[in-house]
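Quick entry, no commentary yet.
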Amino acid sequence: MELPQDSYEAPFKVGATQLLQEEEGCGTLYERFISAAEKPLLEMVWARTGGNQVHAAVMLGINRNTFRKKMGKYKMAGKIPRTWAEYEVEVRKLEGEGLTTSDAQAVVDARMMTAGVSTDTLMRAELRKTKKKN
């Protein structure tokens, strides 16, 4: 589906205006602006593909190695939660960076999927802990 160019340019204009006010003459304006736009895009595409780097790279129209370098640049691999509490902490961190709850969950789920861990595994472990306490 092709969106009208104005529909996605407006938020970038607002962001650029804010950065211009903060960055008078600092020489980092371009890098900060690109990072602010690129990181959420990469995270959402990675989550949409279920953590599959090759499919994410294809969707973005870039080489898989380029995608992997960008993952490293933005520390997208992130922490792999091993408990439900860690899962929630990781989701909250991403929400703090501006992602919606569902997008943040999808990003953490994608990280876990690439490490062979599922949210079901975390939930079952949490249930076992609860049963042991009772």
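second:
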Amino acid sequence: MYILYAVSAGIAHRLAITTDGSVWSWGNGGRGKLGHGDQQHQLLPKKIEAFTGQRVVAVSAGSRHSIARIADGSVWSWGQGGWGRLGHGDEQSQLPKSQEALQRERGVEEQSETAAARAMSAGRERASTRSSVGRSSHRLSLGRD
């Protein structure tokens, strides 16, 4: 039995984190937003295997995409990439993948682990993250206005 830590509801899909840091998704699988490498609908929660061996601490379900924050502060996104909403520098649909732009920002102070995404949100057409590097705060919005 798994114990839920957090849940996020999108328009037609849901994400949940269990206390062991694994991520589960269910609902409409269109555009790959469930993170399973297909577009199959899931009537029951199914574990997202891309996060095996990592501890996810936050998730947010958008309308066509999803994002997750890992314990190390990295942010991952997946689903439909239109309008750059995934933050991977293209408009391709993706399996769960780390956002390289945020990794480069973190690289400045990665050894001290003070640079990490602190807050995030997936909306209908965009995703936003807020991070801190030292005493500076940065906001990155991905997608269209």
